[in-house]
Amino acid sequence: MDLNTKSGRDSFSSKFGVIAAAAGSAVGLGNIWKFPYITGVYGGAAFLFVYLGFIILIGLPIMLSEFMIGRKSKRNPFGAFKNLAPGSSWKFVGLLGVLAAAMILAFYGVVAGWSIDYVIRALTNSFAAKSPGELESSFTEFIQSPITPVIYQLLFMLMTMGIVIVGIKKGIEKYSKILMPLLVVIIIVLDIRSLTLKGAYEGLSFLFYPDFSKLTADGILSALGHAFFSLSLGMGTLITYGSYIGAKNNLTKIALQVTVADTLIAILAGVAIFPAVFAFGIEPSSGPGLVFITLPNVFQQMPGGFFFAPLFFILLTVAALTSSISILEVVVAYFTEELNLKRKSATVLATVLISIVGVVCSLSMGILKDYTLFNFNFFDLLDWISANMLLPLGGLFISLFVGWYLGREKVVEELSQGSSIVEWLVRIFIFLVKFIAPGAIAIVFLNGLGFFSF
Ligand code: PFF
């Protein structure tokens, strides 16, 4: 029985739409400020090597697993496990995913709000003639203020809601098809600018020179955590998107294309950022500081900076938007299918609830910064729990589910839709999801929590 037609569920209408939406989910803030920085810090090509290993051995098979679970069940993550494993506890993996989605979007929306504010700053030329110290204090004052960042965060949440509320075809797919090509064009323009600056080479070597001495245990856990975060894995985003993919599509090919696109764009972002930073003799800073303090400093010295600065922050906002819609959709699909809400009410309700948590995140940078747990403020706590704990755990269970619970026959049935089956590929896939992915996640995870010492 085709549940899709029975329930009149919305779906993607074209293959390009599927890829644009899934790559849109994967390519986000993570690619643009997090990947370049952690690559530089943990040994350039040495880190890249480990990251690519995780992407191929763990990321790709889990992405395919999520697509399969989604397309097979045609449900939100909670409903998907309930449908495929009735009466079991697997559904709690889906529920954990919905929770992780809400947590991630709460802090993600805050950073995306900052990037809208910086689009406006760039357009009004407000970085000009500011000293590095002034740029830093203006960023710090801004994120600590109780009003302006909240307004931009809410504006971003409204934009996300505006796209999700109209549905898959007319909202998520339509906008991803416009925004993703725009993003690629912008990043290429920025790459050309950066690589043609004098002294660009040093930035490339920061990014690519393999320095294995910098590759610590922490770096390896970061590589795993980031593989999950960057590919949008472990919380059912791609289960949800998978549930809107039609039977004609070849899931293996789509997973491969999305993974390659995400990795390429992360590398292109590094190439846009570091050569420019080093060309002006600036020390790259970590995390949000890289994008919101270092880069404004770079742009104000760069020939044509008044043009490239807004372009960069538009890129950041667009990347964040195509990711945030995928995160909100997880919660919306859950609300519509499990709580029987109409799409409109589900979207409004999810946006309001997540925005409230997001406002607390934003305030935890300033007036609420003294409320900490394990030394983390609320923002960092949500980031840490969701990205470092919930996503790898979710990924672990998803791979165990496909490898051990669903089993070979159902995997073959799903993979053979839209393509002819390649026996050795199926064998490798099953081996990866049964043993390699869960084993590697468990080791890296326990090591990161300090259980071993290598
Ligand atoms: N992949 C996005 C990024 O790299 O910014 C973030 C993200 C989206 C994480 C969707 C998780 C998710 F389910």
TrEMBL record:
<dbReference type="InterPro" id="IPR047218">
    <property type="entry name" value="YocR/YhdH-like"/>
</dbReference>
<comment type="similarity">
    <text>Belongs to the sodium:neurotransmitter symporter (SNF) (TC 2.A.22) family.</text>
</comment>
<keyword id="KW-0472">Membrane</keyword>
<feature type="transmembrane region" description="Helical">
    <location>
        <begin position="254"/>
        <end position="282"/>
    </location>
</feature>
<feature type="transmembrane region" description="Helical">
    <location>
        <begin position="90"/>
        <end position="116"/>
    </location>
</feature>
<protein>
    <recommendedName>
        <fullName>Transporter</fullName>
    </recommendedName>
</protein>
<feature type="transmembrane region" description="Helical">
    <location>
        <begin position="150"/>
        <end position="168"/>
    </location>
</feature>
<dbReference type="Pfam" id="PF00209">
    <property type="entry name" value="SNF"/>
</dbReference>
<feature type="transmembrane region" description="Helical">
    <location>
        <begin position="220"/>
        <end position="242"/>
    </location>
</feature>
<feature type="transmembrane region" description="Helical">
    <location>
        <begin position="388"/>
        <end position="407"/>
    </location>
</feature>
<feature type="transmembrane region" description="Helical">
    <location>
        <begin position="302"/>
        <end position="335"/>
    </location>
</feature>
<feature type="transmembrane region" description="Helical">
    <location>
        <begin position="12"/>
        <end position="33"/>
    </location>
</feature>
<dbReference type="InterPro" id="IPR000175">
    <property type="entry name" value="Na/ntran_symport"/>
</dbReference>
<dbReference type="GO" id="GO:0016020">
    <property type="term" value="C:membrane"/>
</dbReference>
<feature type="transmembrane region" description="Helical">
    <location>
        <begin position="428"/>
        <end position="452"/>
    </location>
</feature>
<dbReference type="GO" id="GO:0015293">
    <property type="term" value="F:symporter activity"/>
</dbReference>
<feature type="transmembrane region" description="Helical">
    <location>
        <begin position="180"/>
        <end position="200"/>
    </location>
</feature>
<feature type="transmembrane region" description="Helical">
    <location>
        <begin position="45"/>
        <end position="69"/>
    </location>
</feature>
<feature type="transmembrane region" description="Helical">
    <location>
        <begin position="347"/>
        <end position="368"/>
    </location>
</feature>
<keyword id="KW-1133">Transmembrane helix</keyword>
<keyword id="KW-0812">Transmembrane</keyword>
<keyword id="KW-0813">Transport</keyword>
<dbReference type="InterPro" id="IPR037272">
    <property type="entry name" value="SNS_sf"/>
</dbReference>
<keyword id="KW-0769">Symport</keyword>
